[in-house]
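Reopening this one. Same input as before:
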Amino acid sequence: MSTDTPGIDPLQALRAPRDPACDVFLTGPVFLDIIFTGLDSAPVRGTESWARGMGSSPGGVANMATALARLGLRTSLAAAFGDDHYGEYCWDALEQGEGIDLSMSHTVPGWHSPVTVSMAYEGERTMVSHGHEAPAPTAAPAAAPAAAPAPAFPHCPPRARAAIASLAPGRSEPWVATAARNGALIFADVGWDETGRWDLDALPDLAHCEAFLPNAEEAMRYTRTDCPRAAAHALAERVPLAVVTLGAEGAYAVDGRTGAAAAVPAIEVEALDPTGAGDVFVAGFVTGTLADWPLADRLAFAGLTAALSVQEFGGSLSAPGWAEVAAWWQLIRTCASQDPAALERYAFLDDLLPTTARAWPLRRAVPTIGFRQ
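Same output, byte for byte:
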């Protein structure tokens, strides 16, 4: 949990007594991620490779949940956890370490945790995963009263300001419509369409979304356009906010309600591991949207947090908190080579960050599944 800059709440000025206790709700599978670092090249068949470093952390949907929590949003996660040591470690890391609400989550007896092994080298990564789909729960979540009936997990989401969904062709998640009816703003990304049809009408939950955040390739395929910006404008006819990520070129967004558009170039960094960068971008954009920032500031902040994340290894391990943002902002303004116009793009940080910060870079090191006290 990022405690280096205590008290930073991006929504503090907007909170009211009757607001939801939860800022963001999300659900999905949690993996145990084991990340090998310090590989000079890809493993070669028939040989043994030694890594100079490693890290362990909750992965999968935990990447997004951790990124949200470290930015000061009150985050609720509904997920299944194995009753093995891996599951116990992930639960403790998220609940105790990151302050994430797991009252909608549950432990599955006899089910082992999904695992992903990631090998990072040359700015990319190769992953191997193993796991089985968790069976539906037969009892109420751990934090529910003993006499309460078991909810249709996770179709009874808590009242929240926002919820994050991952769309897939031909699949509708009932909890998304429920969350939207209860007032949550739905933010959604999408994966590769294995069917090859790339049909927006095959994404039924898109109708409930406040914002849709595909990458450039996905956006162009879904809209039958050959330009990411044209794709964003086409998507803005279907959702209030269309955000297209452009990789090394930054991001472009269109507000479908007003027609306003914003473009922000990417921050040039030395990328060590891109794992989880997309999740961090979404978390940054959600933070700015809930805080009612201008569209360009939301894009700039999302891009900044994603850039900070790729400079570290791992998914949830690399998610930056306000301490990392503050340290970067303090450092970057001392660099004589910085373009003043480029710095002006991030001037909104002055009103958010403390006047002092720890020195850059900051490191989060969790080498193993945990040492005995």
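So the earlier flakiness isn't reproducible anymore. For the record, Residues 128 and 146 are 39 Å apart (CA to CA).
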